[in-house]
Amino acid sequence: MNLEAFILGCGGMMPLPYRHLTSVLLRREGDLFLFDGGEGTQVSLRKLNLRWKKINAIFVSHTHADHVTGLPGLLMLSSQVDRDDPLYIFGPPKIAEYIETSRKVLDMYINYQIIVQEITEPGIVYTGPDFHVRAFPLQHTKTCVGYTLEENPRPGAFNPEAAKAKKVPCGPLWSRLQDGETVLSSDGNTVSPEEVLGPQRKGRKFSYVTDTKYLPSIAKEVEDSDLFICEGMFEQALEATAAEKKHMTSIQAATIAKDARVKKMGLIHYSPRYTDSELKTLLNEAKTVFPETVLTRDRMVFPIEYTD
């Protein structure tokens, strides 16, 4: 099952000609999940030729303009196609007011159901058949949350030799064992999946954190992520500015990544003071703490692979 993260915008505060505002789309087979929707989100969606009109859910970190101004247009354009499933929107308090006010003021024509759920405490906010999305608190100038999407553990690897030894013939019965069913062998004995499968294997984990001061507690929330998208707005020389504005330096983001033992971190939400070439300062500083750091760029794609 494919899992990919698309960086739709990597900038913070204000859009630049070469840097849209923060937004990430996660595609898991046929499911699409949008994390924030800053100005320019629709442009990147179109350039990447994604089926964005079928987005399942939108997860908003907070209601500052650089994270939500791309949403009204997205909601309106989604009415251009027939849609049977509702669109879920999650976010901290004020997100429902923002969506409802935008619909009224812009006189939106919406031909599908929009379900807005405000997050008032940490926990699981969205559940699929074999994964869930969890929200956890951050600390910014207004209420802000981070998110993780985590898959359930997978069954262990199938051992054909063990199945043959148990006299289970190759074919549909092997598939049923891999699906967790108990079957009968050719000599009438019961064979359970545990007898032919190895240990459970870890599912994949994606984490998204932006617009927060450095909090050691974040590491526990994003622990063991395969991909950790995290703001690194300032260089270390501006640590005092970051603290005042309740943002992080790239070194602070890297510290979280190291403490959380993530596989890879993508920096995002850069201050507009940095040109594209100057972003190397943020990258180089972060890599001194966490070498598996990359700079995200608009329309960059990150495949998230199984680790076994």
UniProtKB/TrEMBL annotation:
* Active site: residue positions: D66
Q: Does the keyword Hydrolase apply?
A: yes
Reactions catalysed, semicolon-separated, are:
Endonucleolytic cleavage of RNA, removing extra 3' nucleotides from tRNA precursor, generating 3' termini of tRNAs. A 3'-hydroxy group is left at the tRNA terminus and a 5'-phosphoryl group is left at the trailer molecule
Record's keyword terms, sorted: Endonuclease, Hydrolase, Metal-binding, Nuclease, tRNA processing, Zinc
Sites where the protein binds Zn(2+) 2: D66, H67, D211, H269
Q: One GO molecular function term?
A: 3'-tRNA processing endoribonuclease activity
Sites where the protein binds Zn(2+) 1: H62, H64, H140, D211
**SUPFAM superfamilies tied to this protein:** Metallo-hydrolase/oxidoreductase
Needed cofactors: Zn(2+)
Q: How is the cofactor bound?
A: Binds 2 Zn(2+) ions.
Task: Supply the Pfam families for this chain.
Answer: Anti-Pycsar_Apyc1, Lactamase_B_2
Keyword Nuclease included in the entry's annotation: yes
InterPro entries associated with the record: Metallo-B-lactamas (IPR001279), RibonucZ/Hydroxyglut_hydro (IPR036866), RNase_Z/BN (IPR013471)
Q: What EC number is given for this enzyme? A: 3.1.26.11
Domain (Metallo-beta-lactamase): give its ranges. 20-201
Oligomeric form and interacting partners = Homodimer.
Give the record's family classification: Belongs to the RNase Z family.
Function, in words: Zinc phosphodiesterase, which displays some tRNA 3'-processing endonuclease activity. Probably involved in tRNA maturation, by removing a 3'-trailer from precursor tRNA.
Entries under PANTHER family matching the protein:
ZINC PHOSPHODIESTERASE ELAC PROTEIN 1
Q: What is this protein called?
A: Ribonuclease Z
Which species expresses this protein natively?
Teretinema zuelzerae
Lineage of the native species? Answer: Bacteria, Pseudomonadati, Spirochaetota, Spirochaetia, Spirochaetales
